[in-house]
Structure prediction request, 1096 residues.
Amino acid sequence: MPLGQFLFEYLYRCGVRHSFGVPGDFVLPTFAWLEKSKIQSVTMTHEPGAGFAADAYSRINGIGLVCVTYCVGGLNVLNAIAGAYAEKSPVVVVSGAPGRKDREKDPLLHHKVKTFETQRRVYDEVTVATTVLLDEQRAASEIVRCVEACVRHKRPVYIEVPHDMVDREIPTTIVATGVAEESDPHTFKAALDETLALIRAARKPVILAGVELARYRTAGLVVRMAERMNIPIAADLLSKSAIPENHRLYIGVYGGAMSSDEYVRKYVESADLVLMLGTFITDMSMGFYTAKLDRRRTVLATTERVSVQYHRYESILFRDFLFALASAKIPPKPFKHPNPHAVPIPLRKSERRDRLMIADVFRIVSLHLDERCCVVADVGDAIFGAVGIRSARQAQFIAPAYYMSMGFAVPASIGVAMAAKKLRPYVLVGDGAFQMTGVEISTIVRLGLNPIILILNNDGYGTMRKISNGSFNVITRWNYGKICELVGGGKTATVSTKGELDNALSRARNAREVHVIEIKIPRNNVSVQLARIGREVAKIRGWKKGSV
Amino acid sequence: MPLGQFLFEYLYRCGVRHSFGVPGDFVLPTFAWLEKSKIQSVTMTHEPGAGFAADAYSRINGIGLVCVTYCVGGLNVLNAIAGAYAEKSPVVVVSGAPGRKDREKDPLLHHKVKTFETQRRVYDEVTVATTVLLDEQRAASEIVRCVEACVRHKRPVYIEVPHDMVDREIPTTIVATGVAEESDPHTFKAALDETLALIRAARKPVILAGVELARYRTAGLVVRMAERMNIPIAADLLSKSAIPENHRLYIGVYGGAMSSDEYVRKYVESADLVLMLGTFITDMSMGFYTAKLDRRRTVLATTERVSVQYHRYESILFRDFLFALASAKIPPKPFKHPNPHAVPIPLRKSERRDRLMIADVFRIVSLHLDERCCVVADVGDAIFGAVGIRSARQAQFIAPAYYMSMGFAVPASIGVAMAAKKLRPYVLVGDGAFQMTGVEISTIVRLGLNPIILILNNDGYGTMRKISNGSFNVITRWNYGKICELVGGGKTATVSTKGELDNALSRARNAREVHVIEIKIPRNNVSVQLARIGREVAKIRGWKKGSV
Prediction:
């Protein structure tokens, strides 16, 4: 079978249905195979957008693909792939490259930087596996090795395809597959027994559901466990929506000063046992170190290890551990949710003409969300404020909540829409981030997608202005609505009162095309979360000068 | 002196007057020092644009600066810096980073990928020197070491500034400087004697002036030598305009099938001695291997070595060698330029209503150029066709003529304008490349710059369509003129006849603001150069399937 055919047939078999990329001469023969395959290829306007789209797609679909040319494409998508590594998103990067024959005399070929190894070496720093397909005999097993690593680790891998290799016939009969891993039974039992004893003894336990539950599709096990034991569940910034937010045991997003509300914050910090399941402990999810979680009362189980209080167990499979917890017989705890199925306060007629503050935006958006929506938040107050979004229905949430790369949301909404046609993206993006990658609305229009794009316009880099002000935080004032005229599609609105936003959202919901809503926010108005973080971090003096 | 103060004072002393970047939390304290310095900081909309602007600035100014935050900024500007490496442009990359204290326990800090070393290791692949300023004692000498390497090699360097280091006092008295290099006198004499003997014996020598003449400011020596010996000079795609194009000995751009015209191609290929001075021999500058240059009749002198026919000399300083050549006494050759000061054919009244073909665009632009203009060409037919641009006056030319990264030109025009206020950029950019980075017109408007941006709209990835067609070459049809309304400034025009383009250029020349001229080109019309390359490469069958 030709290499190109095998590559895309195998990726299709692994679940890839769409590819995001930009063509270029070294990758054209690979694109020709992609076009012949059952995978739909989406040409984006710029590689950074292709990376973000593939990342978001992978989070929802379980695996995704970005296809680019050598260096001018591959290095241009690197930042997005680094973000996918940091936040555990399984993206396969396929890059075209100079031919095997081209490499013989080490000439200066266009797109080359130092050596023909440059791009692969760069990708070694942001992936869990890389390969350059220079050998027909090993090509198929190398592809399988990389894609298996991608799926196992939920992190990006890099496959470099020299343009003179992709049409070659390769043997595909003998294909190595990784051995199935197993938990060490004694270690497993010790960790489980200790954890169960702690749960049994706890009067006020809480589950902090982490992002790995979403990536490894294991949230269901945790919900089952929580229901059997009647333990409330909180999420963190990165795992928001991994547990259905309308579940009767769900209490909100915990993150120290960045928590969604005071109830969840107090509950988690006063719990006598915090079960962190699949959690990344990052400065962001811990509210810039304002979180108060004592190791003495925590169990942290991830795909890498199980840590109980001050000691750790290795060689335990995450899924096995969760399955055992979900099956354990422990009497239900006395927890009673004071306000299950929390609904944001409906908009009163008397306030419709009030000027919009940023907190209102999140509240009004919450009122419009249902299970067919996916909120996609960009960096800055779009993400800090989105912590507080709470819908009566089960809406999805995606954001670069740890790596925090600006410009994520608009292109990511394309990945979301392609991965799940029934989900409508609600994009929350600051004006600065929109200027970075907002022209991907061009791709949205061509594909006939219909996200609702909410530009939070506070006239510049608002979050940075709060930390350190200077002329460097000034950006050009755009007429954001004109983006639709530029790219030839979509509807726009500009709103500055609560009623206008509510009306614009209603119109957008009932329409079939992309809507761009510019929301004018007072220049110095910030979300409750950002304001609280600012205050509390200022108190922890000298902790981190020059950062939030 | 505080580290931040030293850093920017030293860069200022080395010639940096402007910085291009995007702020972010880890780099904010560094931006605060930048703001206090004499260097003007320019916030771009997106890091790729900042990289291209700094690259173009460095080519004209001799050194440039890009200032970004950790990973989400640094990795996002990587492709542009890789291009600067490939084409020898001296850019200093200053990146903010997590603090020295933050690194102690290796926590998950936002913007981190694998380890705190990730970004530096990535930059090792695209720079000639890197440093992380974690030690007050060595900070100043590390800065000096990197900047000296940048200036010596005319290639990028990377300086990582942890946010908790930039305000610290550092010792600046003892600062190491690199030792001055010298040529080895015996090797030097042997190489020079052999070269001079070849020149003396040649009846029809030609100089192929390379890009290093521009980078090392040594074009004047070569012109002096050419004048004394009456030897004609050709440039290549990357060095175009290094030698004033209205010089009486200048004969055009040589590049095999991609030469500016048949005269220069035939002259170079029939010469009995080709003096390649400061030349990069790349697939692009050699017209995809259609160039016919026999090593038996070449001397290649660069900053790395002197190669005479089939042997090479090391340890020779490029400048010394050029100086000796320029001072040598050799009787003038009998060359007579058949058409010095070549002027493109003026536009006749009878043809003003003719539909524009792409070749006409380059001819009409040529008629408008003078010594206050700098043509900035993007990738695709913008660059292939621009080979043929020839003005009666001395216009500058800048393009990513080897690395070939799409999206270079619009942001690069900002670097050009900041580096030389008297130069007006004429940007030639395809529709695909414009969609990548064209929104940097936002920055152009805010800075009050006035480039003339010519969008060559042939409805998609035209160059790639010629190689391998498929749905992946389709891009969205934009109303390009609307970009001015989006970003709030500039004038637009759409043209499709020769007269309309001529009029639009005249209006733009007389105006003080940015002009965006959309040029509608028939979908399958390509430049003479691209057509010729296509034909000749097709003849060299099997040479490089799937590439141009």
